[in-house]
Fold each of these.
Amino acid sequence: MSPTSFMRGPRIPTGPARCAAALAAAWLAACAGNVDSGGDDGNGNDGGGGTSCSTFVTFDPASPIASPTTVVRANAGVQGAAGVLDYRWSVTFQNGPVAYSLAQADRSAISFPAPVPGVYTVWLDVGAASACPTALAPLNVLAPGAKQAQLRLQVTPPASAGVPPFEKLVTVLGGASFSLGTLALDPGLTAMAAVQGAGGGVASYLRLMPVAAREAAVETFTDFAGAFTARVLSQPHDVLVIPAVAGYAPRLVRDWSPSGATIAVGAGATVTGTVRGPGSAPLAGARVQLKIGQVPSTIGVTDGSGAFALLAEPAPGAVISVDVAPPAGSGLPRLLAQSSTALDLAQPLQIGYSASLALRDLGGSMVRRQGAPLAGAKVVVVGSLSAAGTVTAGATAVSAAGLVQIAATASGAGALPPTLAPAGALSAVIEVAANDHAVAAIDLTSPAPVSIDAPPEVAIATQLRRPDGTPIADAVLDAAPTGALALAGVTSSVRARSGAGGAVAARLAAGGHYDLRVHDPVLGRGAPLLALDATAQTIAASYALRPALTATGKLVLQGSPAPVGGAAVQFLCSLCSGLDRSRPIAEGTSLPDGTFTLLVPDPGTN
Amino acid sequence: MNLARPLRHRSSGRPGRPGRPGRPGSITAAICSLAASAGCFYVEPINQRPSLDIRPASSDPVYRGTEATLEAIASDPEKQVVAFQWRVYVCTDATSIQGCDLDPIFTGVEPEATFLVPAFRADPDGDGPEAAAPVESLRVILEGRDDRGAAARPDQELLLPVLNAPPSVALRVASTHGAVVTAPIDVYARYGDPDDTPANVSLEWTVFSPAQVPDALAPVAVPPDGDPAHLQEGRRFTPQVAGNWDLRVVATDRAGAKTEEHLTVTVAEDAPPCLDAWDPAATAQFAPVTEPTLFRVLQVRDDLDAYPRISSEPFLGEPELVWSIKVGGGPRQALANPVASLAFDPQTYAPGTLVELRVEIYDRKRTAIGCADDMAVCSVISQPSCIQRQTWHVEAR
């Protein structure tokens, strides 16, 4: 007790009691030193204890469905806190407070109503002798009768983070925005390994695909000695190895451990064969490749006798695809065959074009638009032919389809040079100018036509609307070429931006087919598909986007509270194949604090 | 000492005459004779008055509408604790009783008195507030008593002049884009007056170019922030040269008090855009592509052209991504429309075909990318961390 407090009146009653027991001769000194009996502030504070505290919240029910009678109980969980705990709660929904009631007398649990679906956020502050962090717990309250959709969530951290890509499946439930909570990114590990062949290291291309998320792949090349270093997830990988050195076959190594196991490659199996033209004459200069499952072979090029040899890694039971690209100028289609029954690759492959396959010469055909010759127009004749050839291995024969991609450029007078093309009902894709295409049917079942007419582009007009009918201004409509245009190598989308009233005007290739996607300025870079395989004639007067849900989350590094900002966050289709599998449905970037917000299409409710 | 009394009573064996604690100047004496047998004798000292003083916590003038802090300084000869009692009155003329309100605006017992100085007297004539009169001075009274009730004499009284508070003003750059040449910059001033309504404050804006030449400012609307004590005003200037631009705002209240604030905005030239992230990884070697693949730009960095475009910032544009493709040894073909991604289907090409896919980025300045065609990557500012060209080398398989 300090001298000042010694002097205060309220302490006086303690003095006489003590002093009464003192001997008379000695009392003064004794009393002077013992008036204060307390000496202890009595608050019981033992100074903490230095234990780190963690705070969390659990919900009951864990996945509530919104209704007027839905009540959610939030329970506080505290570990490592010293002293008497004091709980302070806050509940918010759509940035507004939600009233709650105590569910435990000591305030360690609360109840709150959840009549509306969406994300409710519960904040819990725990007062304790030692500091406890605030718990922030989002709760997804589901919509009644929610439909489900499964999406892939893919995260590509910035290169500076040194973290491999991350992917997981996410089930989106319709009718309610949702939180993905905190996503801990696996920092991965640095795999240092080598591709080894019989003669030592083999320079190769590698595609390292995590077994649990094959699309979150990492690509790399080895050095000339076969060594490589890659930052990959800490899990087994399937590794596609494509050696760059002759004498080795590509292979798929399953369940490779990134802890440093060597990847072995070898010559695989040698597949031989012959390619013959429609008249059974050997076809020189054709390029032959197999795919066994998803693994390509080396590429064999036929010699003067039509013979080829390639290396492939056999995989029993796998689908075998045969791809034969004829030499340029031959006029022949590319042959594509696929065998679901096992081709005996130990037998020489006999690949022959159909004897009935005829060739037409386009030389002299005039390329015109509305009667006027098109000087310098590029024409690509495209199409597919059934039964254009046969692939035979031993006793097994497989029919091959023909893929036609024959290109020619018109002269200054608009005439095509001598150009062979297979007979058949095909299409001509004419590039009139850099941004002006036309698709015209070209019947080559009979001799080549005198002229190929390129119809003018067709103006289209439509309107983009939100689900509530309001027009979307400043949205981007992308018309991605498909069909003949895509086959002819036209990769440029037709792009137009909507005006204030949501109106969009563009010009499409006559006869062209397109997939329509819209980049909504609200949705960000997500590109919801509006229409598949649309033509200028089938464009609707207006398109309404599907309702969207807000998906939020936060990226942190696993084992660390460090947020991961600047990461590309994408939702992708989980059931698609081909290019659609890598086209984002919604796309955004995480903020410096690791949080992200994306809008994804609403699967709806029943 | 209070402590002594009970002991004295006990040792004398009879109630003694109590002293008169709390009576200023009293002398309490007790003699307890210590005879040969037992007992004691002692004299209680005379309790003396404490002395008081009032000190402002700061030497700054006291302004209307601001907080003032005063400290009580006490000294007691017996080192007793002194209890304080503060009373603060607002006045137009503190030298007269009539010049002050009847009721104090502050009372307190702590050694430190902190209170808000009101802008107006509540009751200037003592008969109801007919006309609000500005507070011109404060009358501060401090009383103090020690533990035994001895009061300081005289009470401490302090008359403090109260001045007109100058207006407050705070500046901030409101534009979300960077400070870049030719890009308009919005500056908001949030202003108020502690002793008046913000509507009575006027602002004078000036902006100086790096050459210290005044430049044009245009009004911009500022969304209200709901704070009745403050208003906001905005101005826009559009720098045409790089350097430090100095914005000066002078706020003046009704009484002519001025507050001047400066804001220096460092304006930079519009730097070329940078391709920050792309997918898949780009390599110098030809990477086999066995499946249809979307080649994409994921992130872009630029001063004024955002990717994706930010609709809420009309001034911000969108950079242009120009793709080109080169098949085998053929010519490079630019794709007609700028798109964010390029779809590549290896089945469109004969197996083994080598293809170069290239993307180049241009912002509104369209700085030419002058690198040779065979350079896969190009930075027009020679910074590897900011490239404007990326090239994927792929082999169709």
Note: The longest strand of chain B covers residues 243-252.
Amino acid sequence: MSEKFDAIIVGAGVAGLAAAYTMSKAGLKVIVIEKGQHPGSKNVMGGVLYSHMMAEIIPDFWKDAPLERPIIEQNLWIMGKESVVKTGYKDMEWSKAPYNNFTVFRGKFDQWFAKKCVEIGTLIVNETVVKKCIIENNKVVGVRTDRPDGDIFADVVVLADGVNSLLGKSLGFHKEWRKDQVALCVMEELKMPSDKIEERFNLDKGMGATIEIFGDTTLGMVGTAFIYTNKDHISIGCGALLSQMYEKRVEPYELLEYIKNHPMVKPLIAGSQPCEYYAHLIPEGGYKSIPRLVDNGVIVIGDAAQFVNGIHREGSNMGMTSGRFAAETIIRAKDTRDFTKSTLSHYEALIKESYITKDLKKYKNASSTMENNGAYFNHYMPALNKSVSEMLTVDGESKSKKQKLILKHMTKGRSLFTAALDILKMLKEVK
Amino acid sequence: MSDIKKKVNIDDKLFLNTYIADTVSHLIIKEEAVCVNCDEKNCTKFCPAGVYQYKD
């Protein structure tokens, strides 16, 4: 395989495939190298794929793609030990084109996406591991794979090799991620008949809902749990910064078992059958962890570039957008036959002007603020539950007395000033 | 925290897998001497697939 390509993409996740599709559509000669048996076979995702960013690559994809359910209701739960404060939003607008987001099984979806790429000329090679980037004269010129005679050459190599990005690390783009730059997530697929899912989640036929859970479900660790509806499965999972699991000595699958047995969750999933267990690291270092993105002949996209907004559980969208930007940059560079760092830095500019940098920047201190001040997860979230309980439990106490009690719950063990400051600080981090 | 120590059998969970895992582990301990002197043995704790075990 000594022929030369316009671009080699390492990794057939949604970021890599978005890049491949965009370049193939423009007539470039593209090869995608995937280590798994097929695209998606190594993929783990809670399951929410964003419509807008996917449609920018393949318009009207929902007519054809294997999707589980369009999400028409999104919920946020703040969990106490035996209580929960619920908020949510449901919108019928989301039940029709162009939709907002879908639950998907990446094993199926990525195969479909890959097939679309192949139809327009992308070459996809599965079960092949890229061992390293080939560097000549200070420029990445190709990759060495584990196949015999496995050197492949291209003008640009796109690293879409996921959270650990060993290739990015070997090029010195990033160091081994610190424990507070990655979240460890585990999830299960629980089988449940579709009509039962619709009954339990109060959904019209075929429609879906999501629940994001903060609070007791992560035992005070900075993290979240989630419940998503698929066609005839429920995805349930949880994740926390690795640094937090490390500190609290919690094993990830025990945490998941705790959540499944939580009194607020148990009835929702009762009678379902576990049929799959997954685990993965999620790059949640945010803005400050974004590695170097380009160099001579190389661009980094998706999880490998830490493009995940943990606060909003967005990631697939950023993966796809960054893949498209990388493709547009390479198409543009091809005009001048110049693939040096300075030309490819157009990609950095696109990322910077887009929602990716803007969103990650907005929340750049949110995780560390929550991690450094344990009160958010360990005090304020339980206190919120207690406060709502005060207001709604009818026990003969006057409402004005209850308001005083609420203030006491919120400030317990700290001055009113400290509590106000804590809350203002969090508002500032997410404003 | 002790209340979450409902022992979970990770082997039961992994048995469910239709996720395609490698048959040969890519995880190799380069130097076992390092593990002997490691107090916390985090890899035996946090690996979600329970890949690592420590036996004296």
Note: Helices of chain B lie at 10-15, 32-36, 42-46.
